[in-house]
């Protein structure tokens, strides 16, 4: 085993917050692994950062009418804070817009360029003539040829899930201008991946057929069997790392060229701060590189990035790439565009102090070899039945009994009791499972120690033997205390916040993993423990129903958004904006709530109704051309909004003293603009 462990976690796109799918499939397992490696005494560098280039960033920026830098600045901080608050213990969390990253990425590219590793190729790509830009696939929208969705992207239809190319779209249009894009020639630099097939076959297919996860190995084998092709390492975009070559204006490095180099540049940033040599982690045989990723990133981390490093010549290949499958939410695929997700930052706000509950539930449902599912009901069960009912129950019983019978002092016990070996056994099992990246089994081994502790107490019944055999009761609680402290130690990688509370409760410090495995006595006779502290609390049905209702509301909103537009909606074109007014002009408008008291038709005027309106200030007459949309009876009692300081004017001989606010419905009929709830008449609007 290598002395150094370089552990990387896939860079999250800084175009939005992270959700539970990200956490379960990459970040929490990677954190558990890193924490155990540190406890094993390894020299660990746990590296990650925000991926701040690429199309998702620019699309989000255009939607919000801000710059890409504004987007990445915002979400980098949101993501970084979420990771910190969930206990993800990165040694370095940086970003790909940093000066250092640009320098390292460009240097890497130039090294490959100077070695003649690239081929220059000219190809036709879609171009928006009005915007003057080449279009990435995501910037082209049209009708899906499979399901008829009129808002399918050039790379995928998010309604039916089909993978597409821009040429397959019906009536393709540019998202930038709305115009039909044209094909235009452009030059880019390609890495001939086919040149690295023999190397990849030997390194992965032959070298890792027995130790890599089947889902990773199988996908790589499929790619290699189909044959690799050259892939462009540059793009015609204006957001990214500029290509460091003359006559390459308007071109940036392909996001999947610069993003994995982030692992290298971020390691360099960390090493400079710590006074270490970054090359010891990337270019030394006494170091192991482990990539934690989701299954959608396998090709980039197992084919493209290794080919890049092989072309460069100075870098070690990863020892393992434990990619996870996807986590679904309530039996539906997590989707950021549909807002079908449990967002990390929202969870932290809505479940304060319960980070470990989410960590535990997501590890228990980790999609290690196949897609798995998260439900709020299961989340509640995992907390109430396991964390509260098993783990917390055991700890509480031990602490309470020690204080009740021994004033919180560890009694004299049998230091050779066979039950003491359960702690070292659990630690060894956890270590072995994690070496195989079996996180669910490792979590079960940790919880099984709590189960054993509960069973032991139930069998020994020290609350009974204290009266008839005090020595036996003391031995029982001495053993139980060892198990409790063992749990405090081995739970740290999984439940770091709870482990910290436990160590404080038992007045002990964290020890190395080897000490946990080798030492039978973890808390000595005569040691004073502190008062018991509640680790976990029951989650009530109302809390879970609220979360489920949030998702139901999201589902209803999505159904409305995905409904096909009616012919009237397709034909509708809003009127142009009227002339701009100054703020002082706006403040002159006096809008109020009012109630219609009476309504009657105006003689010899088919379109007019005469209203008597209670404005809260007075009762006044208003004439309005709404008779084709309402009967007088429909209007009586309706609360409306009225412009009350409009100068009076005569309509068909009747002085109208204000204007009611109305809008036009899809069927052409008018509708009153009314408050959502009943309020007092005369309330000001605005």
Major sheet details: 6 strands, antiparallel
**Number of extended strands:** 26
State the separation between the terminal residues, measured CA to CA. 68 Å
The outline comes out as flat
Q: What Rg, in angstroms, do the CA atoms define?
A: 33 Å
| Poorly predicted tracts of residues | none
- Percent of residues in beta strands? 15-25%
Q: Which percent bin holds the helix content?
A: 40-55%
Mean pLDDT: 93
Number of helices: 22
Structural class based on helices, strands and sheet pairing: alpha+beta
List the helices and strands and how they pair.
Elements: E1 4-9, H1 20-39, E2 43-50, H2 55-64, H3 68-85, E3 92-95, H4 99-114, E4 119-128, E5 133-134, E6 140-143, E7 152-153, E8 170-174, E9 182-192, H5 197-206, H6 214-226, E10 230-232, E11 234-235, E12 252-253, H7 255-274, H8 279-282, E13 287-292, H9 298-312, E14 327-329, E15 332-333, H10 344-350, H11 355-364, E16 372-374, H12 376-406, H13 421-435, H14 439-460, H15 462-468, H16 470-490, H17 496-505, H18 513-518, H19 541-562, H20 567-571, H21 583-587, E17 591-601, E18 609-614, E19 619-624, H22 632-635, E20 639-643, E21 649-651, E22 654-656, E23 659-660, E24 662-664, E25 670-672, E26 684-685
Helix pairs in contact: 2-3, 4-7, 5-6, 6-9, 7-9, 11-12, 12-14, 12-16, 13-14, 13-16, 14-16, 15-16, 16-17
Task: Tell me what the structure shows.
- It is a single chain.
- By secondary structure, the chain is of the alpha+beta class.
- It contains 22 helices and 26 strands.
- Strands 17, 18, 19, 20, 23 and 26 form a six-stranded antiparallel beta sheet that branches.
- Strand 24 and strand 25 form a beta hairpin.
- Helix 4 (99-114) crosses helix 7 (255-274).
- The longest helix has 31 residues, at 376-406.
- It is flat, with a radius of gyration of 33 Å.
- The mean pLDDT is 93.
């Amino acid at each position: 085993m290598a002395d150094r462990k370089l552990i990387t976690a896939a860079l999250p796109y800084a175009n939005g917050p992270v959700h539970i799918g990200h956490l379960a499939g990459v970040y929490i397992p990677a954190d558990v692994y890193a924490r155990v490696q540190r406890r094993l005494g390894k020299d660990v560098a746990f590296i990650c950062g925000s991926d701040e280039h690429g199309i998702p960033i620019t699309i989000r920026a255009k939607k919000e009418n801000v710059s890409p830098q504004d987007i990445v600045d915002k979400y980098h901080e949101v993501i970084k804070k979420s990771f910190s608050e969930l206990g993800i213990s990165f040694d370095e969390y940086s970003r790909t817009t940093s000066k250092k990253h640009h320098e390292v990425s460009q240097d890497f590219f130039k090294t490959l360029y100077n070695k003649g590793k690239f081929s220059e190729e000219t190809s036709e790509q879609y171009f928006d003539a009005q915007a003057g830009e080449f279009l990435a696939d995501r910037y082209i929208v049209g009708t899906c040829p499979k399901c008829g969705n009129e808002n399918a992207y050039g790379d995928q239809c998010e309604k039916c899930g089909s993978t597409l190319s821009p040429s397959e779209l019906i009536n393709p249009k540019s998202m930038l201008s709305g115009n039909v894009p044209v094909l235009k020639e452009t030059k880019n630099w390609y890495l001939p991946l086919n040149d690295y097939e023999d190397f990849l076959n030997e390194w992965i297919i032959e070298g890792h057929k027995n130790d890599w996860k089947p889902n990773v190995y199988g996908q790589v084998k499929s790619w290699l069997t189909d044959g690799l092709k050259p892939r462009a390492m540059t793009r015609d975009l204006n957001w990214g790392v500029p290509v460091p070559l003359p006559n390459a204006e308007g071109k940036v490095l392909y996001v999947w060229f610069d993003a994995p180099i982030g692992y290298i540049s971020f390691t360099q940033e960390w090493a400079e701060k710590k006074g270490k040599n970054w090359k010891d982690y990337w270019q030394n045989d006494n170091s192991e590189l482990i990539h934690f990723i989701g299954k959608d990133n396998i090709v980039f981390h197992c084919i493209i990035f290794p080919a890049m490093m092989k072309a460069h010549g100075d870098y070690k290949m990863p020892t393992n790439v434990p990619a996870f499958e996807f986590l679904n939410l309530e039996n539906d695929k997590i989707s950021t565009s549909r807002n079908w997700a449990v967002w990390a930052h929202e969870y932290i706000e809505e479940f304060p102090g319960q980070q470990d509950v989410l960590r535990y539930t997501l590890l228990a449902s980790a999609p290690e070899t196949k897609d798995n599912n998260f439900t709020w009901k299961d989340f509640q069960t995992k907390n109430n039945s396991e964390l509260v009912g098993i783990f917390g129950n055991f700890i509480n019983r031990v602490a309470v009994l020690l204080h009740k019978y021994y004033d919180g002092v560890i009694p004299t016990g049998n230091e050779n009791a066979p039950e003491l070996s359960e702690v070292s056994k659990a630690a060894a099992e956890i270590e072995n499972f994690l070496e195989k990246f079996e996180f669910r089994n490792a979590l079960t081994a940790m919880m099984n120690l709590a189960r054993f502790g509960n069973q032991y107490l139930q069998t020994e019944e020290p609350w009974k033997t204290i009266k008839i055999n005090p020595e036996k009761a003391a031995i029982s609680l001495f053993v139980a205390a060892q198990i409790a402290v063992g749990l405090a130690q081995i739970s740290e990688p999984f439940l770091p916040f709870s482990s910290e509370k436990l160590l404080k409760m038992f007045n002990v410090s964290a020890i190395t993993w080897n000490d946990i495995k080798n030492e039978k006595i973890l808390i000595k006779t005569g040691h004073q423990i502190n008062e018991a502290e509640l680790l976990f609390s029951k989650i009530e049905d109302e809390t879970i129903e609220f979360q489920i209702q949030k998702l139901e509301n999201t589902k209803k909103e999505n159904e409305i958004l995905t409904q096909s537009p009616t012919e009237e909606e397709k034909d509708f074109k809003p009127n142009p904006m009227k002339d701009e007014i100054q703020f002082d002009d706006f403040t002159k408008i006096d809008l109020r709530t009012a109630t219609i008291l009476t309504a009657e038709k105006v003689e010899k005027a088919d379109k007019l109704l005469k209203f008597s309106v209670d404005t809260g200030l007075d009762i006044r007459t208003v004439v309005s051309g709404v008779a084709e949309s309402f009967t007088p009876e429909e209007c009586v009692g309706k609360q409306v909004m009225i412009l009350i300081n409009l100068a009076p004017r005569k309509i068909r001989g009747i002085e109208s003293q204000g204007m009611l606010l109305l809008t036009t419905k899809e069927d052409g009929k008018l509708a009153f603009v009314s408050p959502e709830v009943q309020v007092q008449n005369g309330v000001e609007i605005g």
